[in-house]
Specification:
By secondary structure, this protein is an alpha+beta fold. Helices cover about 45% and strands about 25% of the residues. The chain has helices at about 5-20, 65-90, and strands spanning about 25-30, 40-45, 55-60.
């Protein structure tokens, strides 16, 4: 993927998470520690009251069609919900 395509994918994922899953605050970025040959997303999620937060990583999807992105978003939401629920039980 080109840097332009990577940035466009990150922007799109950020917009989808912000618009459709507003119960959390999101920050999507490229993982600076990942090798350039394997671009990886670093996603921070936190509750609106700032009491719970988590960090996720995902391989950057090579396909940017709507179905692929929705699959990535679904996985992010599922994992963030589970991690943040676990945080609230501690």
């Amino acid at each position: 993927m080109t840097r332009t395509a990577i940035n466009a994918t990150i922007t799109l994922l950020q917009q989808v998470l912000d618009n459709d899953y507003g119960q959390f605050e999101w920050r999507v970025m490229l993982d600076p520690d990942a090798p350039a040959s394997e671009p990886t997303l670093l996603i921070h999620a936190r509750t609106r009251d700032f009491q719970r937060r988590c960090r996720l990583t995902r391989q950057l999807p090579h396909a940017t069609d709507q179905l692929s992105l929705q699959h990535v978003v679904t996985g992010i939401i599922t994992e963030a919900d589970a991690l943040l629920a676990r945080e609230s039980s501690h």
